[in-house]
Design goal:
The protein is an alpha+beta fold. The protein is about 40% helix and about 25% strand. The chain has 24 helices and 32 strands.
């Protein structure tokens, strides 16, 4: 075998003279008993060990010296800091220092003390400065009057130490403030040691350290020389038996290793080949000394061996194997010129690598599907994302069909044999597949699609050309598909929660491999992930639609008719879903109007339902005609009760705390607007000239916080003013804060000639992006004033005889207003209300008649006692007055004011009152 000649030579007797080598330059050892020849060449092991020992000792000495220098300098600087700080603090806290600094001549008082202290303290300098840093006394008199640097911290009362770099010298210094009895800084004391004097002790120690290092180096060198001599003696003492065993071990390892090895000479002939090389390369038995070009190793491997170039893990074919080849030249490692080549069999590794790469690609595909599919919560878009992810790595063309119920966000029920193509990705010549939007029907039972729906799992058609069952439903369409080059199909039902949502088809065209069973597994996993995303999008669409419908039903559909304000409004939901912003316009007695804007924290169904509850509560509280701040107080109590119930529901309910509300009452008689707000942003007021203000109105905590009274502020608005009420989503966004939003809003509404509708349109266009992050409620109201000729007021003496006189005056005013048809009913109402006020109330008593869309009669007095409607018994002498009022008036009620109450009755003009005569007769029968 090739290579055995080396073993036979190792057993031969040494040449005459006892030498192991005929080459004088390689006399590494002699037989025992001979005198050793020293060799200090760096190629010998002894010289290398000696050099290594010297280097190690030098490194240790250098490290020790450097550590000593650094530690010495560190200790010196710390000692200098402590000494400087002690001296500076002692001088600054001395009893007479502060007094001297406040004297008329601080320099004369302090200079002797500074010189004396420096002489006995061991520091290089002491300076006393005023708070501005001007030297008043210094150990160098020529510096007096100059300004010190970097003492601002001490002027603020802070003591510190630092290393100062600058003029007059670099130093380690301490800076201490001097304070008088009132803790006011009256001066600064600095003391320090120059940098050049800090290391004087180190300069004395370095020569001693270097001398010790030299002695250590000498001892280490001598010891290393002795060890090296002993090592050379032992190494050169190897005998023939030891060398023989060494060669035998080398041969055994060479031929037992599971890696092929070749040694090629400089002339390109094979010098050595181990057993593994014979097996891997199929070498003939007589391959020794033959040229590598004669061994039939293949073009690539032969080129590597002949060229002599270095190579690392170059894969070359050798028969039915793939070998990883490594080549290196032998010249740098001794011996003649040549080449060493090693071989490893990587055939199975390459197959495993291919399968691993395929698995990695499929895992990457599934990972991207999880990241890219379902980002928008939009059903058609999610289906399109599935198709885009699968093309081109999974298929060449992908189609997705969904049930119409799924596209509309509804729960899929009933038949699944009719779907609508929702996504198609991948281009084919002639567009053989039905386009997006077409209705797809599965009516033939033998097609793969119907089979997949029936079985609930994927169906593979590896060769569409030979398969016949898929052509039954649409033979012409099947012909066009084959003509376009499509040859393989996987159809997978789109299922989530056990319910069929649609169908996904994967197609491959000519030039791509056919689908196999592993592709089916990947397709099923991909579709399963997409099905969850599509179902989530469907459920989100349904919930969003329900929330939008609910919120639209809870918001006012139309504004009520009233004469006090010209109103326009806008509501815009957020991009993320329905929110809790709301508004309302509520007519109140006396032609007053309440404007309401609120904001519930959060989005979704809960926010919409909570908004509806709050709006209903405000409507109910408004029917009681409460003051603005009192109404918000009742609303706050209601929110607190709701939160208490939510806490008691074991997490099933959500809290309302944090909702905001603004409630404003506008009175057109005097143009006065009362505003109370609970955590809400203040409205904008635009006067008739276009000047915009944001009035400073009292602000109370949001609803549900509790423990705080609500306050109200009043605004006097001239006719034609605009009141702009809004939620924070209009002025606050991710790209701007609320202050910038208010500035933009003020500029947008500062146009005196715009109507409320035009103002709303301008604000929507200016303030909001295309997809706002928060919902927005906007209410713009332009004020009107009731003409003074339509208001009549009488102060009534607190006596029964005044009733007839006032009734007569009211009748005259009704004649002036051409309202004779309601004169009788008005006189009756006024008589009853005024009689009750004088009999059961307290002064002052006042009557006010208002003419507008309706006729309002108001009687006020100073009592808080409210009358109530009741059915009087036949034996009662009274109790029928309010019953008569309720019969002749369309509406009536009571509201409380700061000092008393107001009882009002409203009659609709243009029709005669029609009281229930039966009830009147029954009531008057007594």
């Amino acid at each position: 075998m090739i290579g055995r000649t080396r073993r036979s030579r190792s057993k031969a007797a040494p040449p005459p003279g006892g030498r192991r080598s005929a080459d004088p330059s390689r006399r590494l050892w002699r037989f025992p008993g001979r005198r050793l020849s020293p060799s200090w060449s760096l190629r010998t092991l002894a010289a290398q060990v000696f050099l290594l020992q010297v280097i190690v000792v030098l490194v240790l000495i250098a490290a020790a010296a450097a550590a000593l220098v650094l530690q010495g300098r560190y200790d010196g600087e710390n000692s200098a800091r402590e000494r400087s700080l002690a001296v500076a603090e002692a001088f600054a806290h001395a009893p007479g220092t502060a007094t001297a600094l406040q004297s008329s001549d601080p320099t004369r008082a302090l200079q002797p003390s500074v010189m004396h202290a420096q002489a006995g303290s061991g520091v290089d300098f002491i300076s006393v400065l005023d708070p501005r840093g001007v030297r008043l006394a210094d150990t160098q008199p020529q510096l007096i009057g100059t300004t010190a640097q970097d003492i601002g911290r001490a002027a603020m009362g802070e003591t510190f130490t630092d290393t100062f770099r600058g003029k007059p010298s670099d130093a380690v210094r301490a800076v201490v403030p001097v304070m008088d009895a009132s803790r006011r800084v009256v001066g600064v004391v600095t003391a320090g040691i120059k940098i050049e004097n800090v290391g004087h002790l180190l300069d004395q120690q370095v020569p001693m350290v270097l001398g010790s290092a030299a002695l250590a180096l000498a001892l280490a060198t001598g010891g290393t020389a002795l060890v090296s001599r002993r090592l050379r003696r032992q190494t050169h003492g190897l005998g023939p038996a030891e060398m023989t065993r060494m060669y035998e071990h080398h041969d055994a390892v060479l031929h037992a290793v599971r890696e092929g090895v070749l040694i090629v000479g400089a002339d390109g002939r094979l010098l050595l080949a181990n057993d593994e090389a014979h097996r891997l390369l199929g070498l003939p038995p007589d391959a020794g000394r033959r040229h590598v070009t004669e061994l039939g190793l293949g073009e690539e491997m032969t080129r590597l061996l002949v060229s002599g170039e270095a190579a690392s893990d170059v894969v070359c074919p050798a028969g039915d194997r793939l070998l990883a080849v490594n080549t290196r030249r032998t010249a740098p490692y001794g011996g003649a010129q040549g080449l060493v080549a090693s071989f490893r069999d990587t055939t199975e590794l390459q197959a495993l690598s291919g399968r691993a790469e395929m698995a990695r690609g499929r895992l990457t595909l599934l990972y991207e599907a999880g990241v890219r599919i379902g980002r928008t919560l939009d059903v058609p878009r999610t289906a399109q994302e599935l198709a885009e992810v699968a093309v081109p790595r999974m298929a060449d063309v992908v189609t997705v069909e969904l049930l119409d119920a799924v596209l509309h966000g509804e729960e899929p029920t009933g038949a699944v044999n009719r779907m609508r193509r929702t996504a198609l990705h991948g281009s084919l010549p002639g567009d053989p597949l039905q386009p997006v939007g077409d209705s797809i029907q599965f009516v033939v039972a033998d097609t793969p699609m119907v089979a997949a729906l029936r079985r609930g799992k994927a169906v593979l058609v590896p060769d569409l050309e030979t398969a016949r069952d898929w052509r039954a439903q649409d033979p012409e369409g099947a012909r066009r598909v084959l003509a376009a080059g499509i040859h393989s199909l996987i159809t997978v039902p789109l299922r989530a929660r056990g319910v069929v949502l649609g169908m996904v088809n994967f197609w491959r065209v000519a030039g791509a491999a056919r689908f196999d069973d592993e592709d089916v597994a990947v397709a099923e996993e991909l579709v399963a992930r997409a099905a969850v995303a599509i179902d989530n999008a469907r459920r989100y669409s349904r919930e969003h639609e329900m929330a939008v419908t609910l919120q639209r039903s809870l918001l006012p559909r139309d504004l009520p008719e009233q004469d006090a304000l010209e109103v326009a409004w806008r509501y815009l939901p957020a991009q993320s879903g329905v929110g809790g912003d709301w508004f309302d316009v509520i007519p109140l007695p006396g032609f007053r109007v309440a404007l309401v804007v609120g904001d519930v924290v959060g989005h979704g169904l809960h926010a919409a339902v909570t908004m509806g509850r709050l709006r209903t509560a405000v409507l109910n509280f408004s029917s009681l005609d409460l003051p603005a701040e009192e109404l918000l107080g009742h609303l706050d109590e209601m929110v607190t009760r709701l939160d208490t119930q939510a806490d008691a529901a074991d997490g099933e309910g959500s809290r309302v705390t944090g909702a905001t509300c603004l409630y404003a009452i506008y009175d057109p008689v005097g143009g006065r607007c009362t505003v109370s707000r609970a955590g809400h942003v203040a409205p904008a007021v635009v006067d008739p000239s276009g000047r915009v203000t944001f009035p400073d109105l009292p602000l109370s905590p949001p609803l549900g916080v509790g423990g705080h009274p609500f306050e109200a502020g009043e605004l006097d608005l001239s006719e034609g003013s605009r009141l702009v009420l809004f939620t924070d989503g209009l002025v606050e966004d991710r790209g701007r804060d609320i202050d910038e939003g208010l500035r933009i809003l003020g500029a947008a509404v500062a146009h005196p000639d715009r109507s409320p509708e035009e103002t709303c349109r301008a604000l929507m266009e200016t303030m909001l992006p295309q997809h706002p992050s928060d919902d927005v409620a906007l209410l713009v109201a332009r004020t009107r004033l009731l003409d003074p000729s339509q208001v009549a007021v009488w102060d009534v003496p607190f006596e029964a005889g005044a009733v007839s006189r006032v009734r007569t005056e009211v009748s005259r005013r009704l004649v002036d207003w051409e309202l004779e048809e309601v004169s009788f009913a008005t006189e009756l109402i006024l008589s009853e209300l005024l009689t009750n006020a004088i009999r059961y109330g307290a002064p002052p008593v006042r009557v006010r008649i208002l003419l507008g869309r309706t006729l309002v009669c108001e009687v006020s007095d100073g009592s808080n006692t409210s009358p109530r409607l009741r059915r009087a018994a036949t034996t009662d002498e009274g109790g029928r007055g309010l019953f008569l009022v309720s019969q002749f008036a369309d509406r009536w009620g009571t509201r409380y004011v700061a000092h008393g109450k107001v009882i009002w009755a409203e009659q609709t003009l243009g029709r005669a009152p029609e009281p229930d005569m039966t009830l009147l007769i029954d009531e008057m029968a007594w």
